[in-house]
Each structure stands twice: as C-alpha cells, then as structure tokens.
Amino acid sequence: MSAAVATGPRAEERALAPVSWRWPIIYAVFTLVALAFLRVGDGATTFRISRAGDFFEIPDVSLPALATNLVLLAVMAAATAVAVRRALRRAPIGWWVPAAFGIAFVLAFLTWVGAGRTTLIPLTTLLAGALALSVPLVFGAMSGVICERSGVINIAIEGQLLAGAFLAAVVGSLTASAYLGMAAAPIAGALVGGLLAFFAVRYWVDQIIVGVVLNVLVVGLTSFLFSTVLTENSAVLNARQSMPDIPIPGLAYIPVIGPVLFRQSLLVYLMYAAVIAAHILLFRSRWGLRTRAVGEHPKAADTVGIKVERTRVVNTVIGGAVAGLGGAFFTVGSGLAFGREMSAGQGYIALAAMILGRWSPKGAVAAALMFGFARSLVNMLSGAGAGISSDLLLMLPYAVTILAVAGFVGRVRPPAAENVPYVK
Amino acid sequence: MSDETPRPATEPGDPADRPEGATARTGGTPAAGPQDGPIETRTRELLREVLSGSWLVSLLAIVLALLAGAVLIAVADSDVQEAAGYFFARPADTLEAVWNAVYAAYEALFRGAVYDFRADSPTRAIRPVTETLTFATPLILAGLGLAVAFRAGLLNIGGQGQIILGAVFGAFIGFSADLPVVLHVTLAALGAALGGAIWAGIAGVLKAKTGANEVIVTIMLNNIGLYLVAYLLTTQAFRVPGSPNPISPQIPTETAAYPLLLEAPFRLHAGFLLAILATGAVWWLLDRSTTGFEIRAAGANPHAARTAGISVDRVVILTMVVSGALCGLAGSAQVLGTEHVLTGGVAASYGFDAITVALLGRSKPVGTFLAGVLFGALRAGGVLMQSETSIDIILVVQSIIVLLIAAPPLVRSVFRLPSPDARPRRRAGAATTEVTA
Q: Residues near B52 by Cβ (< 8 Å), separated by ≥ 6?
C-alpha cells in the first residue's frame, strides 16, 4: 500500500497489470466445497497423534466435529479474504496462505471422515505414509529436473525406477546387504539414462519416443529376467533385504515431526540431501548455470564454449542415476523382493510432479509430496472404510496435472530447447 | 517410400537420415570408397539403392532385435548356465545348449505365429496364422490412430486410455442394449469410436486452446482411464448383478459381437476386415484428401501451415478426434471381437504396443498394417513360446526393433551399409547435387 501511495501520480500514468482472480476463485471454490464438511452431526473425531514406540506418547485427541470444522472453515474463509486482498493489490500470494488453507482443508476433510466413528484418524501414520510414498516420486522428479533443464525430456523415469529397483534387489540379495543393493541401484538407472542420451543426443531420435520405448524395454527385460532367472533361484537372487530406520539423535524426539521425518532409512536421508543439492547446484553452481544455458539456448551456450552435447549426456546419465536410486525404494527401501512391473506408473507421476513444480527442484518436491499425501490419504480412507471410491480418489493427482498443464494453475513453461536436438 | 516424413515432425527436416553425416564423421565406413570414380555402373547404383533403402533398415532392425532376444534366451536358460559352468572343459556343450535353447524358443514362436507343422490336424496347423491376425487387429487399428496423430506432429501417447474408453463405450452398448443383429454391432462399434474420440479430443482441445502438451495430457488420461474403468466395474450399471467380480455382463455374441470369419476354433473376427478398411481409409485421408494435406502440412511445419491459411488449431482437434476414434475401434476389437466382456485389463498393453507399431510402420498406413501383423505374430507366437522361455522376451524384441528403426544410422553402421545421402557427397565437385532426397 505504501509503495502505491508513494508513487501516487505516476502510478496512474503507468498501465497496471490486470488483477489475477485465479487464486481467489480457486480458494473460494474449495471453501464452498468445505461447507459440505459441516454435515457431521454432533459426533466427535478422534485423532491419533503419536504411534506406539514414539519418545513422547501423546494421548489421542478427541475433538467435537462440528465446532472443529466451523473453526477450520473460518480459517479457510480468512485465507480466501487474504487472497482477494493480495490479488487486488497485485501482490504475490506468498507461501503461508496456501499452506494454511491446504492444512485447514485437509483437516476439515479428515474431521468429516472420522466424525461419529469409532475408528481413529492416525495423523502420524498418514504423514509417514505420505513421505514414504513420495520417495520414488521425489527422486524421479529430481531426475526429471536434472535432465530437462539441459534440454532432454526424460520420459524414461519409469524405466529408470524399475531398473534401479531390479538391480537393488538382485545385488542386495546376492550380497545380503541392503546398503550394497541401494548403492547398485543408481548404476542401473544411469545405464537407462545413458541409452536415452545415446539415442537422443547421438542419433537425434525424438526424446519422448526413446523414453517411452525404453520404458517398454526395461519392463520387458526385468520381467523376463524375473520370470526366468529370479524365480528359479529366488532364495539367492531375490531374497528380501531391508534397511533399518536410523533415528537422528535429538531431532527424532520432536513430537509428530520427529518420527515422521527423522526416524527413517538412509534412502530417505539421501533424498533430503539430493533435493537440497539439486536446488543449490542448479541455481548456484557453474554446472547448474551451464545446464540451464544448454536447456534454454544451446546455440548461445555453444558460442561461449560450453559443450552442449556433453552437458546433455552427462546430465541425462546423472538424472538416470538419481531416478535409479529412487527405484531402490521399491525393493530394499521397503524391504520387499522384486516383483514384475513394481514401479506401477510412478515414473509418470514423478514426471507430472516435475511439471507441476515448474521444472524447479523445490516445486517438484512440493508436488511429489502432494501426490504422496494423496495416495497415503487414499490408503487410509480405504482402510477406514469411508464411502468414497478409492479409484476416483486415485484419479485426482492425474486430473490436477492435466489442469496444471492446461494453465489453470499458472503458466507452465518448459525449458526452451527441450526435445530439440542440437545441430551445429 | 520415396518421401520420408516418417517420424513425428517435432524437429525440422528428416530425422531418419540427417544424422548420417555424424556417422560418417566419426568413422562409419562406407561400403564403397571414392576410388569408384564419378561414373557408377547401373548394377552398383541399384545395389546402393537397395542397401540404403529404409525397408532394408527395418528388416535388419528386426534381425538384430531377434539376435538380442536370442542372447537373452540363452543367458536365462538353465541348461546353458549349467554347461557354461564347465565351458573351458567342453565348450561344445555350451554352444549346443545355446543352440537348443534359442532354437526351441524361436521354433515355438514360429509355430505359434505362422504354421504349426507339429500339429495333428490341419485346422490346428493353420490356426496360428489366424491367431496372428486376431492379435494384429487391435494393434493395426490403434497403430493407425497413432500414425495419423504422428503425421500431424502430435505425439499421442494416450492409445491405452483411448482403447479403454472405446472398450467401455462399446461394451456398455453391447451388453445393455437390446437391438437387432446388424444395428447392434454397428452402434456398439460407433460407440467405441466415439469413446476413444472423446478421450483423445480432450487432449486435442486442451492442446489447441491452451497449448497444453499433448504428451503429458494423454499420459495422464491413460491413468485416469485405467482408474475410471476400475471404478465403473464397481458400479451397478457395469457389473453382473450379485457378482463380486469386477467383470461386466457378457456381450451377446449373436447380435453385438463382430461375426467370426471362420468356424468356431478360429477366433478371427470381422474386426480384422474393419482394420483393412481403416487402413484404406487412413491412406485416403492422409494421401488423397484436403484434410490429410492439412494434417501433414501442420505436422511438417505448423508456422508455414498457419501462414498458408490452415487453421492449425482445428487440425489439431480434428486429428486427435480421428486418432482417438481409431484407438476406440481397437478397443471394440477387444470387447466385441475376442473378450466379449469388459474387464479392468481390457486394453492389455495394446496402447503402448501401438506406439511401436506406428513407429515401425513409419506412420504410413500400409507400413502400420504390416507392422501390426508382425507384432501380432510376436504376440501370438509368444503364447506358445511361453513353454520354452518367458513371454516377456517379446517386449524386449519389440522395443529393440523400434529403437533401432528410430535410429537408422545406427543400423547402417552396424552392417556397414551406405547411407542414402552419401552418394552426392562422394561426387563432390561434380554437378550432380540435385539428387532427389
């Protein structure tokens, strides 16, 4: 406000940007939807906040459903009002308004689901499940960011995840060490990434086509080896290995957050590291600058002496390795043996998360966590026996992605040189 | 085969041949050196034409893929592994085991796909080839659909979802309506086409109106379609009353199914005739109609097409609708032709296989038809091959074929074949630079 007053007369001369009503409208619609959650009768909803074995065992909290939802609705209405104010002032919305709105909406929904039932709403389990289900998505989305920022579309995330899961299971089983399995997973992913780079950079084949075909190839190879070699000798080649949870001293004792974030396996801690490293390196390092230059304007990059093709190959292989590491989650990361097509389309969701996150590591992680949370919620709801079809709920992330790429959630702009082979 | 615009034209020029220069630079040895002189004999010229032709590359790609498959079969075979344990003592044993494993697998593939020379009755001996055509039917239809989109420069990855929606619409009309013979199956097939067209149309409209990337939208629609059919099969309208299984009621074979072309043990149905008709229709659409010209123009260069007065947005929507309708018909081949019920797995992996079919067929109608028959043969043969090895080897062979087809210079360099644009370069200096591409 002060800025507008200070510039006074000059502000009128300047053409103002039109007011963007997108976010206020989205918030208003969701607030109206949340009105439906008020139909809870006079029951109570019980939340379980800590799990057995946590350092602080917090007793279950029982809240009157109607009062809770009225309060949450007020929060949502307030957030909508703030959004309207910000929109009128053409100010950016910031991060805490969407966060508060989202949390209030989800809590209102959970209160509605649990109202008047004997079943508990396990908050901590829900969050922990969300984080676990996000692990392959986050690694896959990081892989996508690393590849696509250099101008190579990585549709083969699915194949890289699956290849990583396969090699992690086999190596882990052979060496009877989950950690060695995890260490081997990036090699498999990097191989798939290398193939992608070979065809896309060396032979200028359409990157989307190579990606799709590589996914089929990896599904075929792993399923073939699974049903011939692995099943014949599953005790040696495909025995279950799991990584123990490592509680981080101190941090793991924080109520709710501690057990969810800091009582995890090494793979999850590597995920934190990968996200932070990707974000810092991409925007603060020479490698990152070069990667982005090659992805946006390869000719200019080449003119100043950056080797376009080498950058793309290196990035695609690194990206493949990152996705491969994420694939380890399916087998050694969750203590399972390898199964046919066990990545089950998660690579495509990771791709969607990356697009929703607008090709930035930060955004991609947020989107991946949202997808993971949605799945965890669906799991919980089907367990709690809520009257909503899990199939319909599982559609939601995909529908949101379509809305996102169609421009309803802001402009989505890919790197300019994506899927354009560099020809000197 | 003269004009090569085979691949989705997201990049300018002809991607199939451009990288040849790169191969030559990095040491791909040409078959004939410059010492041949400027005058070539007629035979040599003919030979070069044959050797650099794209159909030869396709053939060699298939051979290479089968070789790679053979390596996998041998590696995974337990007899081979055993014999390899004492390889240095008796290497012949290993080689014999490799030969046995590979021969048994590919013999089964042949017997399952073409002609079963070990069968005890002529009916059984011929049945494999009809099975091949049965499996090929949805592949051809969906492959044609994707080929149309590829020619317009649209990467429709959503064959899977469009097949599912086609199957849902077709099956629903099939089992719920009570109509006379010809009308019922016609309506069901049209419904299937409509279902696929709607699903692809969503992607087309979003692409035209908002610029949404059709690859992402169609991939997402695939997943939504998968959950949609799973959801529908839990509802009353799509389920057998009183049954807990997610399977639709039977589609009446007398009225709503495609009639069988041969007697009972054969499964070949009229859907195959539909596939032949569709091949002709797509050929006419792409090569003879104004719309087809607009589709190809928009695919080759959208900017030029727009300048020439073609409404690219309209072409995008129209192409996706046609593409989806053909994929929907592929879904009808499943529910009205072979399965006769709607299940969650109705599309199998036909949608993704169709991508490889369209690529192998270089997005040309006849090529797609032949590629569909080839992959149908691999599927049909794969069923019998299962007794020898795992059917998943088919996926490996298919994907290697397509990878190699997509990169002709790779195949040429493996077999040391001359490249089609190598000739003018070798005559450098001579005034023959206007050689046709």
A: B412, B417, B418, B419, B420, B422
Q: Where do the H-state alpha helices sit in B154-301?
A: 159-176, 181-210, 214-232, 271-288, 290-300
A272 CB-contact burial (10 Å; exposed 0-12 / middle 13-18 / buried 19+): middle
Residue A117 half-sphere exposure, CB side, CA atoms within 13 Å? 15
Residue ranges of the domains in chain B?
20-32+41-116+412-425, 122-388
Alpha carbon distance B266, A184 (integer Å): 49
Is the confidence at residue A361, as pLDDT, over 50? Answer: yes
- List the one residue out of B185, B164, B187, B190 whose CA is nearest residue B270: B185
Nearest CA in chain B to A421: B11
Candidate from B15, B234, B406 with C-beta closest to A389: B234
Render pLDDT for A43-93 as a digit per residue (tens, 0 to 9): 778 888 777 666 667 777 788 888 888 899 999 999 999 988 888 888 877
For residue A224, give the nearest of B76, B206, B213 by CB distance.
B76
Distance between CA atoms of A111 and A375, rounded to whole angstroms?
18
For the domain spanning A124-405, the CATH number is: 1.10.3470
Between CA B58 and CA B349 the distance in angstroms is 23
Q: Where are the domains of chain A?
A: 18-119, 124-405
Structure token pair of residue B342: 């709607």
Q: Would you place residue B53 in the very low, low, confident or very high pLDDT band (cuts 50, 70, 90)? A: low
- Mean pLDDT of chain B, nearest integer: 83
Residues of B in contact with A229 (CB under 8 A): 76
Could you tell me the pTM of the whole model? 0.84
What is d(CA B386, CA B366) in angstroms, rounded to the nearest whole number?
30
Pick the CATH number of B122-388 from 1.10.1510, 3.60.21, 3.60.10, 1.10.3470: 1.10.3470
CB contact under 8 A, B221 and A398: yes
Instruction: Give me the helices (H) in A36-119, please.
Output: 65-88, 96-114
Verify whether the Cβ–Cβ distance B230 to A391 is below 8 Å. Answer: yes
Q: Whose CA is closest to A133, among A378, A355, A318, A359? A: A378
Q: Does A413 have pLDDT greater than 70?
A: yes
Query: Looking at this predicted complex, what is its ipTM?
Result: 0.82
Q: Express each pLDDT in A183-203 by its tens digit.
A: 999 999 999 999 999 999 988
A46 near A61, Cβ under 8 Å?
Answer: yes
CA–CA separation, B225 vs B345, rounded Å? Answer: 11
CA dihedral sign of residues B52, B55, B58, B63: negative
| Residue-level pLDDT at B3 | 40
Does B210 sit within 8 Å of A219, measured CB to CB? no
Q: Rounded to an integer, what is the distance from CA A77 to the centroid of its chain?
A: 28
* Residue B38, pLDDT above cutoff 50: no
